[in-house]
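[INFO] parsing input record for AAA+ ATPase domain-containing protein
[DEBUG] input buffer:
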Amino acid sequence: MSDRTISDIERGISLGPRRGTMLALADALKLQAGERERFLASARAGRKPATPDARSVDIEPHRLADFTGRESEILSVVAQLDPTGAAGGPAAPVVLHGAPGVGKTSIAIEALHRCATLAPIRLFVDLGGLDAVPLTPLQVLQALLRQLTGDPDVPKKLGEAAAAWRTAAEASAVAILLDDAANEAQVRPVLTSAGQGAVVVTSRRALAGLESARRLTIGPLPRQEGIAFLRRIIPAAQAETGDLDELARFCDDIPLALRIAGNRLATQPSWTVEDFLRRLRREERRLSALAAGDLAMESTFALSYEHLSAPARTLFRRLSLVDGPSFDARLAGAVGDLDVDEAEDLLDGLAGLGLVETLRGDRYRLHDLLRLYAASRLRAEETSDAISAERRRLRGWLLATALTAGSRFEPRPPDAPPVDGRLTFSSNDEARAWLITEAEHWFAAYQAAAARGDHATVLTVADSLHWFSDLWRAWGRWHEVFATSAAAAAALDDPAQQARHLGYLAWAQLVETFDPAQARTTADAALRAARRAGDVQQSGWANFYLAWSMLNVREFDVAHGYADAAVHDFAAAGDVEGELQARSIGASIRSRYEPEAAIGEHRELLEFVQRVGDELPASIRGLTEANAHAVIAYGLLQLDRHEEALAAASAALAIGSSAEFQSGHASAHRHRGLAQLGLGRVDEARADLATALALGAGARSAAWLDEVRAALDAIPG
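[DEBUG] output buffer:
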């Protein structure tokens, strides 16, 4: 900007400079928190006219010729504006609230025009909700009285104005739009009339204290409506020069952003849609690109941001550091260094101004454009060192909490960790829920630790999640977790750790990506690493995964050799738990070609578990017993001994829950369903096979699912 512009501001000649000028100066001066707000507020105050009555508060915005979509919202508003439905009194006010730029005012105006025959008199007042000094209740009533009576001489006191408004409104059926409300107090006096009118209020806030109101949250447009809106703005030939779906996505489906994008293209006929998309794909340029004339997404968001308290601004800025799509107050507290109650209060304030969206389950979401705006404010108002420190602290909290949650599922959980800010969990169910719900967050922190070479942390977290991974196979990203940890072990040149984590990876390739050939390659590498480390126990696990891999490709003799080697290694290492697993898979291999012998081996295995059961962790014992009963059921089915197979499958299902043993329970339901079918119990068979199909999704291979599906489809009726 010119030196004259700055000089005019300094000397008080320019009392209300443009917002863009003030933002540029605030950034250049590195103003923080309260200083920044006072600086910007002084410009807003300077733009206010000398007298409130001189404001153009009653000029209704024009009806949009290219208005698109929103039929359900408009019909809902129109229904409320119908005076015949008012039951002898005024209709309940309708409050349209939502994030900046979602089109609340446009919806209200469209609804008012569509019901002109029901409410021939239409009144409008801009309440200035985001102005430095919004309209007072008296000024609202005065504006309405001037419009309704045509008399410029209106009462100067609130009580007299309220009485005059009641008298005037009772004589007419009016539809009133109160736009951009700051608070409930601005609206309440308008509702005191007993007339047949209806009131529509728009606000970024929900106005939760307003009595008897019907609230409608306005969100982004559905994607197809957003694309249709773009097609109404962009010339037809130009609209075919790029992907409008991608353009709508970059605009977050927010109507104002869509209009800006459409207007920019329409006013630049030499541009293609792809030309504009190239700008929007650069996150650092996206907000600045979404500006056309006096419309700009950044300034729209800034109006809400400038109304926040200093702590709320800090939290909003730092929420841009959150990687996942949604978050709760605990995670917000971690990023803002707040306790949960403080975080909840601040999040409620952010939601009230449309800067975050509330979701079910006490969760919140920051839409992409708002995330970019928050990140821009973070860079402008905090130092790079402070930002890096906050990001490290958040990721450290996530990884520490993931470690705490995952450790609960180990056969012998460690003692509770010292309190260091991480969450603690009172039950396994609570820990499981957190790991699943916050997976995008802790996994992003895990990947970041790997990227910066923090190999020790990667190995510790992966180890803590190993046992939990078997309980949530449907996630589908465990092979990435363990490929990362195996790479970390290789980077540390620690063969024992390599063997352990390559074993985890082989497991994921067997049960998650269903790739036994790759699992064999990985397990071979684990065996070499275990031998290099002289770790007999890890040799046992590598041989176990090799046996499992060969079983899946039906090379039974080779598989049995690996299983015997695993039993030998585990016995040498004194690992009773591992030996149980190896004997179990050996018996499972035999069930494929010697069902009678396999049944006997598994019954011996169950007797052994009964003898040493107290020495085993409950999870290992349950897994072994459930698997043994399921394999016995499978063998009995091969021998057409359906009653016995039914009893064995039911015994497997009686151990643990489907959440604990999803894959095993899927197999047991499959075996019981086929046994029921063999006994002629069609309805019971159908129910079991359907359950097997549901549990097997994400836990069993496509071939296994196809087999169950075929059996289910073959059932008559």
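[INFO] The longest strand covers residues 121-126.
[INFO] shutting down worker
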